[in-house]
Known about the structure:
- Two copies of one chain form a homodimer.
- Helices cover 38% and strands 19% of the residues of chain A.
- By secondary structure, chain A is α+β, with helices and mostly antiparallel strands.
- Chain A folds into four domains: 6-123, Uridine Diphospho-n-acetylenolpyruvylglucosamine Reductase, domain 2, CATH 3.30.43.10; 128-246, 2-Layer Sandwich (Uridine Diphospho-n-acetylenolpyruvylglucosamine Reductase, domain 3), CATH 3.30.465.10; 249-358, Alpha-Beta Plaits; 364-457, Alpha-Beta Plaits (2-Layer Sandwich), CATH 3.30.70.2740.
- In chain A, the strands form four sheets. In chain A, strands 12, 13, 14, 15, 16, 17, 18 and 19 form an eight-stranded antiparallel beta sheet that branches.
- The first copy, chain A, is globular and about 70 Å long.
- Chains A and B meet through β9, α9, α10, α12 and α17 of A and β9, α9, β11, α10 and α12 of B.
Amino acid sequence: MVPDLAPQREVGHRAARPGAGQQPYGVAVTTLATAWVDELAAALGPHGVHTDPDVTASYARDQAMLAEAGTPAAVVLPRDTADVVAVMRVASRHGVPVVPRGAGSGLAGASNAVDGAITMVMTRMDAVLEVSPADRLAVVQPGVVNKALRDAVAGSGLFYPPDPSSYDWCTIGGNLSTNSGGLCCVKYGVTTDYVLGLEVVLADGQVLRTGRRTVKGVAGYDLARLFVGSEGTLGVITEATLALRPAPQKPVTLVATFATTAQTGQVVERVVTTGLVPSLLEVMDNTCIRAVDDLLHADLDRDAHALLVAQSDAGGEAARQDVEALAQLCREAGAQLVHTTEDPAEGDLLLAARRMALPALEQLGTTLIDDVAVPRSRIAAFLDGCDGIAVRRELTIGVVGHAGDGNMHPTICFDPTDPDQRVRAFAAFDDILELGLALGGTVTGEHGIGSLKVEWLEREVGAVSLDVHRRIKDALDPAGLLNPGKVLRRGA
Amino acid sequence: MVPDLAPQREVGHRAARPGAGQQPYGVAVTTLATAWVDELAAALGPHGVHTDPDVTASYARDQAMLAEAGTPAAVVLPRDTADVVAVMRVASRHGVPVVPRGAGSGLAGASNAVDGAITMVMTRMDAVLEVSPADRLAVVQPGVVNKALRDAVAGSGLFYPPDPSSYDWCTIGGNLSTNSGGLCCVKYGVTTDYVLGLEVVLADGQVLRTGRRTVKGVAGYDLARLFVGSEGTLGVITEATLALRPAPQKPVTLVATFATTAQTGQVVERVVTTGLVPSLLEVMDNTCIRAVDDLLHADLDRDAHALLVAQSDAGGEAARQDVEALAQLCREAGAQLVHTTEDPAEGDLLLAARRMALPALEQLGTTLIDDVAVPRSRIAAFLDGCDGIAVRRELTIGVVGHAGDGNMHPTICFDPTDPDQRVRAFAAFDDILELGLALGGTVTGEHGIGSLKVEWLEREVGAVSLDVHRRIKDALDPAGLLNPGKVLRRGA
């Protein structure tokens, strides 16, 4: 089935040029609005549907500067599952594509608008429906902000671990759609590890409930985890039952600096082989150290080649022992400085250097944040490779990453007004992905494929896997209405 | 496509009645053997294909007494992925169904033979291909016995947690296909939590490699976890990359007995709400206690209504504190006896009572082992419900279970030669599933759907989920060749 896109494309085309119009956009859109916009308004009410380009444009993009974005023909803000069903029924009846999105913190363009499509913004469905300490779970709507969930369960002594950097504004629905990670992953895993059950509205408007409230369960296929990480291409998540953990203990923190990446890599490798499980193990390279020191005047060692920050939240003596063992590994690897603290406030300060790495790099220019995960034994090789790319492409590249799980974020700093730098920056972005694959890694550790890395997914997974992806996409969304062009090329 | 089954059905039909034949089976099978058997023999060699009914019958069943089983038309024992590809190509060319299986320890009939089908036995593909301490993973073939993998990684100080009761003879391929659990789940999760990547031969013989060697990765759909737990209905797993953990510390063990199930339930609920994470938390009811005491003469309290066994492997002082906190919860709930030990040998002895529960129940008659997971807050209600079913059906039902994760195994003991008892036993089996669903649970926590619970899956997941299951099955196995009639009804 070929979606009937022509009228919507026209809307998108006009809306994509704010300020260039010959007539007020509101009028233009009203004139062009087709039956399906009226149907949406009838179902969701006038406040649930927007076609004013000033409004729709604000929902056109996530944070992925490299990714293309169209303009939504309409933006809908459902208030409940019934609204989502109504939207999908209208969309499938008229063959209009739908782009689901949360807050738009994504870094791969997964929620970027598609010309002529409906952008479905889930942020109004933001209720924490239940927190059950007895079953150690929460039931939430997709628009709940990650931090709001963390706060909602903290009162019960509980903890929702996945903590992407944008945790104070990204939504759980977005986290589910991209299978988000964060700083916690080295010990606590990623979003999918906390998904017990989902409610999903399918392309045809049917409501699927899958998964469970129980800790274990093997009845049928693991559909919940198929939807997690599928970036809105298979269905729209409208509710999630999430496992929680006991609140962690106060952390003990370590910072160490090194003269070479090889030393840093040795520490990570020995953390793995000695069986230590820190609750956080982050790395910054010299570029990041200097940028952060410039920004925070934190008296960091500006000549250090790499800085490790680690924590243990095992509690009391166990945490002290973990961090002392980490300190010993750092010393054995030849660390220039090793500092530990049991004071959580000082720990927060030390961690602030890591958390400020990206804002600090942004002082150096526009940033392109890449996202590669490599086997943990290859971290030193990856850091060295990024240094080589920076030299070859004559660009500043700061590497910050989750050393404990091998997920690195090389960040290219450049001047976007310089065409030559742009070309080199984009080339360096690809060089980094190439390097990751060559080291046995993946082109995305936690940001997703979105529209940015569709061709890279094809390279990484190969023809057979791509065929299986396509077969599953076609089975669940035969008309190709859900987030077309994301993860997979737009269907033929 | 309708598989060309007639000749194979005939073979199965004959072979299903050993001793009833009018002619020697070997001759009959040879006479009936069709072109595809010759093609299999040409591909796998004469030692890779068996049609002798004495041989094929031995591969006809797993351990699920209630589940129906046909007789394989042929049994193949591939030695490598190329052999599996060859089998699937022959099978798809001729429309012959294929039942993949491991050691046959399953409890739901998932690997039971289908008349006229090829049973593909994966036990010869039993190599541990790699153990990487630096990346904390292992790469294995599916025929590796669970215990062999555990032993293979122990030398590197590593640990593969999933530990089904049959761990000393079940295979990893079977564990993957059913997403096995075990005693470890309360702390360490289930099989799918350890799957990084898979090699899978699809129905048409294509080889899919999916997943990764990295800790994190979100490139594309989570296909690996779609195959895990799909019980051989979507593809044949030929290799797995599995995450490992650091070896656990020596356990500290606790045993406690209670006069009421309510007290036991209270302890479990408080373990959850207080945030304790024991590495093992098992429950046995009075029927099990008495059966074990009869078998082991272990001087157990035969009047106790329930017995809890718990361990912490957190190590040293942390483990002592965990177990003391558990002991305190037991005392507060009114335990009759609380005993703890730091001596691993004594801990093993205490755990032996739990491990011997099923063999002990088998002394009371033929056993039907059920497998229900309920939310942890409903364990006491579930135990009481099972008592009620035992009274109503006038049967002995012993309940043993993984209290820490709510996965219970009520075990019905009966005399199969008594037709009336058989009827009541099968009815009680269903009553228990009904009870589990009524308490918000699932009809299978870790044994799977197999052929035994196909109708129960339909009841549990409902029409929309079933439709999604069917769409995925059809997308990956359009001819319905892989393990037909398992998980889902045989395709229309």
